[in-house]
Design a protein that fits this description.
The protein has 18 helices and three strands. It is mostly helical and about 400 residues long. Among the domains are: about 1-130, no CATH class; about 260-365, Type II secretion system (T2SS), domain F (Receptor-associated Protein, Up-down Bundle), CATH 1.20.81.30. Strands 2-1-3 form a three-stranded antiparallel sheet. Strand 1 (about 1-10) and strand 2 (about 15-20) form a beta hairpin. Helix 12 (about 260-280) packs antiparallel against helix 13 (about 285-300), helix 12 (about 260-280) runs antiparallel to helix 17 (about 345-365) and helix 13 (about 285-300) packs antiparallel against helix 14. The termini are far apart. Residues about 45-60 have low confidence and may be disordered.
């Protein structure tokens, strides 16, 4: 993508000057025509060195925490009747993330030039997804912009808390595996070769487990480059494969089927679905349109297919729950709750309750994650240590008993 600067006129004759990321001039033109703007000029913009390197490398990461702070602070300023553009300019000075600060500055320029806030966010889909844009658009239409911003901040805060809990629960098993890997490398690369030399010189019989370790050590010493190339190749296949529809679908299916973690992932997707859908309905977004937006928020192909079926069901005049009940990935209790919500006209309240329930389930699962994984790790660790000890001490014992 490149940065394009455009100049256009709205229906009232106001001149709008702003910039946006796009793949081509034609893409910018199509965007402006969709907004019913008369195009005056479009040209590539010369970007600063900092912005260029941020776009090329990985400095353009905006975390959930950054977005929580952004929406929360902006909501407070809007509630205090501070003009939106002025509030954005204040956040430009306060935001620590360089990439987000540049984006907020561009959003402020576009709003000052006459664009709506939602349209200004839409220009930056790498940070502000369709979910944000639709929520903001509903807030602008209903006059509840600050309330909608607080909704977004709350949701991103929940996402951030969840990520932190899962990451914290995984630190212990990750450290165990890392230490085990380092110890195994030291034994195979340095200890086993020394023992091998002594055994060969003494003519003693080499135990099978030690022979396997010796062969592994020789392989790593002679073909280390093959191991490195294989690891790099697998990483490339993984990162390229997950960008293809088939690869992403396979990985998303694995996430739902993997032992222990599969149930947690499923609960996470249910919470995303229920929270996002409830927020959109509260904002006045039509059900079919809301489902289309939620489909991108959930971030799992299996759930996307489920929501696609629900959209088709709604467009045919049926209830959402009729389609959702047929999905093997959504618990029947959730489908039944949604059915009750549709019949009672309180769908957003039911979705909120479902999101709260499964959020608590995730909290409990994450809290018990170490307890669930610890026995598996201890068994694996015990077997690995036993193999290392046998491979090292058994030949030394045989060698000492030979004299």
């Amino acid at each position: 993508m490149s940065v394009y600067k455009y100049k256009a006129k709205d229906r009232r004759g106001n001149i709008i000057e702003a910039a946006m990321d796009a793949v081509s001039t034609e893409a910018v033109a199509n965007f402006l025509l969709d907004k019913k703007l008369a195009i005056i000029d479009i040209r590539p913009q010369v970007v600063s060195g900092v912005w260029y390197w941020q776009k090329i490398f990985f400095f353009n990461r905006v975390s959930n925490k950054d977005l929580v702070i952004f929406f929360r602070q902006l909501a407070v300023m809007v509630e205090a009747n501070i003009p939106l553009v002025r509030g954005l300019r204040i956040l430009v000075r306060q935001t620590k993330n360089d990439y987000l600060r540049n984006v907020i500055d561009k959003v402020a320029d576009e709003v000052e030039g006459g664009s709506s806030f939602s349209s200004a966010l839409e220009v930056h889909p790498d940070i502000f997804t369709k979910f944000y844009v639709n929520i903001m658009r509903s807030g602008e239409t209903s006059g509840r912009l600050s309330e909608v911003m607080n909704y977004l901040a709350d949701q991103k805060e929940k996402d951030y808390d969840l990520e932190s809990k899962v990451r914290g629960a995984m630190i212990y098993p990750a450290m165990i595996v890392l230490v085990l890997g380092v110890v195994g490398f030291i034994v195979v690369a340095f200890v086993i070769p020394g023992i091998t030399k002594m055994l060969i010189e003494s003519g003693a019989q080499i135990p099978l487990i030690t022979q396997i370790m010796m062969n592994l050590a020789n392989f790593l010493r002679n073909f280390w480059w093959l191991v490195v190339l294989t690891a790099v190749g697998l990483l490339i296949i993984f990162f390229v494969g997950r960008r293809t529809p088939e690869g992403r679908r396979f990985l998303d299916l694995v996430k739902l089927k993997i032992p222990i973690f599969g149930a947690i992932f499923k609960d996470i997707y249910i919470v995303r679905f229920a929270q996002s859908f409830a927020t959109l309905i509260k904002g006045g977004v039509p059900i079919a349109q809301g489902l289309a937006v939620v489909k991108e928020v959930v971030d799992n192909k299996m759930f996307e297919e489920m929501i696609n079926n629900a959209i088709g069901s709604v467009n045919e005049g049926n209830q959402i729950s009729e389609s959702l009940a047929a999905s093997p990935y959504l618990p029947q209790i959730v489908a039944n709750m949604i059915s009750v919500g549709e019949e009672s006209g309180k769908l957003e309240e039911v979705l909120d309750k479902a999101a709260d329930f499964y959020s608590k389930e995730i909290d409990n699962s994450v809290r018990n994650l170490s307890n669930l994984i610890e026995p598996i790790i201890m068994i694996f660790l015990g077997i690995a240590v036993a193999l290392f000890v046998i491979a090292v001490l058994l030949p030394m014992w045989q060698l000492s008993s030979a004299f």
